[in-house]
Structure formats: structure tokens, C-alpha cells
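Example record used in the benchmark description.
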Amino acid sequence: MVRWRTPCSTIVEAQSNAVANGIHTIRVAGGTYGQPLTLASGMDVTGGWKQDFSDFGVDEVTTILGTGTEPAVTINGVSNSSISGVSAQGVTRTSGSATGIVVTGGSTGVKIGDIDSPKTVVAGGQGPNATGILVDGGSLVTVENATVNSGTTTGAGSSAYGIRALGLSVVNVTLSEVTGQPGVAGVSAPGGTPAQAGSGSSGGRGGDSAGTDGPGGGGAYAGGKGGHGGGFYAAGGNGGNGAGPAGGAGGAGGCGSAFGCGGDGVAVGPVVPVLRVLRALQGAMLRSQVTCGPPRMASLEHPAHPAAVAVEVAAASPPARTVAVVAVVAVVATVAQPARSQAPPVADRSGCTRTAPASTCPRRRRPRPTAE
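Model output (C-alpha cells):
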């Protein structure tokens, strides 16, 4: 066993000499060491020794301090290394998380503390996300015969951890005490009731239709639903209002007409008045065909407007668009059955005029041919 006649002044110096000479064990006497340690692979560091290194001293405490930017001990990407019998203390951090010991980089076979050494003490110091031992990067660690404390966390919404394992890391803890200090609450939301969201836009108008009705498109930004398309003779219904306390209004229904639409969402030519007009025209045409005189549409004629009577029959006070469509129907009927030019009434030998009703005219008989 190699013994140094003159001990090294720092743990970092002792480890450097040990690695250079193939030595894997370092004994550290009681005292405070202000230089953070980065543990090497295959190295066993034990603290709490007497000043002559003859045995562990009851009053001997080996303290390793971190800095404002580094933890007390870092173990990165190593294997089969251990540290025990020391007090690894994080300090007030000026940047980064407050951590006592960090194990990362997929380190394996790492042991913190040992049952045959003085108790190992770890604390995270003071700063954001204070953590006693942080194990990250898929590392494998055993914690034994140790007292671990998170330290004091700072910053709104900051947590504190005694031992924290991240990134698929595994930590086995035996014969140890682990504690975490209270975290810091997050910032409260602004007071008062949030303002109500703005109203959604109105739904789009339903499409016009000359066939069966169909649904219109929906409005944007949670607006109302679009109106339904119009049918042959009826306008489409309005769309439903949008959801929410201030949803957009539903869109207007589409126009419905068999003869074209004069405006948005208005029924032109209700089916009932149009049917009445057609029946009136049919009756008038039949009456003109059974008279003794020439067939014509005298019952529909008017000096200036031939369709006026048809309009009056269709509805007492129809809307303007209803009048327009009914007038078209009446004119079409008049063209289909035009009135013949009138001739002066001429009486036949029975005394009946051609314009007299058929019921008042006796049946005319043709003279039978006589044989000569």
C-alpha cells in the first residue's frame, strides 16, 4: 500500500495523483474543502479520518462545499465509484439549480455512503429547485447510510427534492433518511372575473333553392348555424344561434320559389294562393267553352290589366312579391288560352244569341236531307 508522507492540500489534488499512480482509494481527514469534486471512475473516496489517518475520528467531519455555479460533488459518466463519510453541501446558487450531488451521463455502479463509514450527509443548499441528490441520464445509484436534505428552494413555483431521479435513472436507498423542504407557491392569477369572450359571428344565410330544401353553411368563430335553403314554394328556416353566452345569431333562411327569387330569405308565391289562382283560371276556361258563342276568357279580362281578377281571387292583400308571381301565372294562362275577337251578337232562327248561356238556347237541329 502506498502512503504519502506529505498529505495533499485538496481532494482534487489527491485524486489527480491517485489516478496518475493507479491508486483507487483516497482517505480524507476531517476539515472543510472549498473546491468542488468531480469523481473519477474506479475511485473510492472516504472522509472522517483522523489527521494521522489511523482511524475514523468521532469529531472529524469532512465537508466538501459547492459554489454559486457548481454542486459539491459531480459524478458524470463513470463506473464503479463511491464517496462516503463526507458532508457534501450545496451553497447559495447564483445560477442553475441548487444541488448537493449530481450523478449523470449514464453512470453505473455508483455508491453514495457506506455502512462501514461515518454517516454521509448531503444537502442541496439554497436556490431554485433545491435538490439533495439529483440522478439523471439513465444512471444507476445506491444510497446507503446517508442523511439527505433538499436544502431551501427559492423562486415562485419552485419545488424541493431530497432525492430526484430523472431520465430513466434508478436509485436504491437503504438505511438512509431523506427529507425535502417546502416548495414555493406559484404566482397567483390576476384578481377579478375574466372578461366575457366576444360574440361569435352570425351564421351564413342558407342557400337559395328551386328544389328541396337543404342546410346552409355554418358561421365562422363559433357563430350561429347557417339558415336552411328554400324549397319550391317556401323559404328555408333560420339557422340556430351559436353556443356560449354570446353566440352569433343564426343565418337567415334561403329563398324558396318555383319561379325565381326576388330577395334573401323571403317566400315568393305561397303555394295556397297559387293553387287558388290556377283553380280560378281552370273554372273560367271551362265556363268559356260551354257558352253558345265563341270561347274566350271574358271572366278574366280587365280593360288595362288582364290579370287583375286572378290576383284578386288569389289573395285579398298579398305581398308585393306574391302579386308579381301570381301575375305571371295569370298572364301565362291568358296566353295559353287567348280570348278571341268579339263579334256582334247574331241571333239565329231560334232567337238565341251566340253569347247567351247554353242553358237558355234550345238544341239546334240540322235539316234532314230529302230525297228528290
